[in-house]
Amino acid sequence: MTDTAATTTLRFSRLLLTGAAGGLGRQLRPRLKACCDVLRVSDIAELGKAAPGEELQPCALEDKAAVLSLLEGVQAVVHLGGVSTERPFEEIMGPNIQGLFHLYEGARLHGARRIVFASSNHVTGFRRQDETVLPREPVRPDGYYGLSKAFGENLAQFYFDRWGIETVSLRIGSSFPEPKDRRMLATWLSYDDLERLVVSALTAPAVGHTVVYGMSDNRLTWWDNTSARHVGYRPQDSSEPFRAAVEARQQHIDLADPAALYQGGGFVKMGPF
Ligand code: NAI
Ligand code: 15L
């Protein structure tokens, strides 16, 4: 555990982590233990053995009864589960749309008070790379995946307005061990900053429904998180140390290529499948 809010703030009796078998779930699973007495981990994929203080509860997000029972006894949720890239709409609809509805219904029925929702920068992927975007500006999804995340943010707003369930929607940029290309010099979110962001989102005193972009303290950025300062997220990493290597690998940028023009990069020209 690095020096995040988790070391000094709230501890949950039971926290649910969905998508625990995925790339980000595997990072957060050991780190979130410091925030809770019991970490309930879930995924449709293999979860391995339960570590001390963990409960395994595998489930498909499409299975309403299973998702409702997943929320029993849970105070807060970090929701990473679902389709994480551009796919045909029919593949996205079950996990990302129906599944999210099931999750919020579970939260409503069982009294979970806060959800940290892994949204995506692809909610605004059709904004240009020469623009700075604010979280409350109109969405510009760059595909069915981005559309599903925009739906998720709207669902979160509704469940706050109607039922008082708070959400922080994290429009995560590119969270990988290091930036893979020039675009990711702007969108990169280190794993340690991801942890800082998630812990801040879980523990900030009042968030209503807040949208925040998930990025490290990158020198070049397309997003302005000023409106989410109440979440208290302070990134400590930067893509800058990777710049020279990335630029050496990718020397030429074709500005006629939509992937170089729009913030969503290659997602803007994926499909039809
Ligand atoms: P991932 O694809 O590695 O993990 C997603 C997990 O969800 C997988 O373990 C998968 O088995 C599970 N899942 C898929 N369908 C399911 C279903 N029907 N029922 C239950 N579980 C299901 O993705 P990653 O990179 O770990 O991302 C986690 C979350 O963060 C995703 O929601 C993704 O959209 C979001 N995100 C990630 C970014 C990144 O840079 N890694 C950027 C923006 C958003
Ligand atoms: C995402 O939403 C994806 O989940 C992730 O795999 C990356 O492609 C990321 O966006 C990105 O935009 O780099």
| Dominant shape | globular
- Number of DSSP-assigned strands: 7
From the N-terminal CA to the C-terminal CA, the straight-line distance is: 41 Å
Give the proportion of residues in helices. Answer: 25-40%
Largest sheet geometry: 7 strands, parallel
Tally of DSSP helical segments: 8
CATH top level is: Alpha Beta
Query: Poorly predicted ranges (pLDDT <50, ≥5 residues)?
Result: 1-9
CATH topology call = Rossmann fold
What does it look like?
The chain has eight helices and seven strands; from the N terminus they run βαββαβαβαβααβαα. The protein has 273 residues and is α/β, with parallel strands linked by helices. The protein has one domain: Rossmann fold (3-Layer(aba) Sandwich), CATH 3.40.50.720. It has a seven-stranded parallel beta sheet, sandwiched between helices. Helix 3 (89-110) links the parallel strand 4 (76-79) and strand 5. The longest helix is centred in the middle third of the chain and has 22 residues, at 89-110. It binds 1,4-dihydronicotinamide adenine dinucleotide and D-galactaro-1,5-lactone. Residues 84-85, 120-122, 174, 187 line the site of D-galactaro-1,5-lactone.
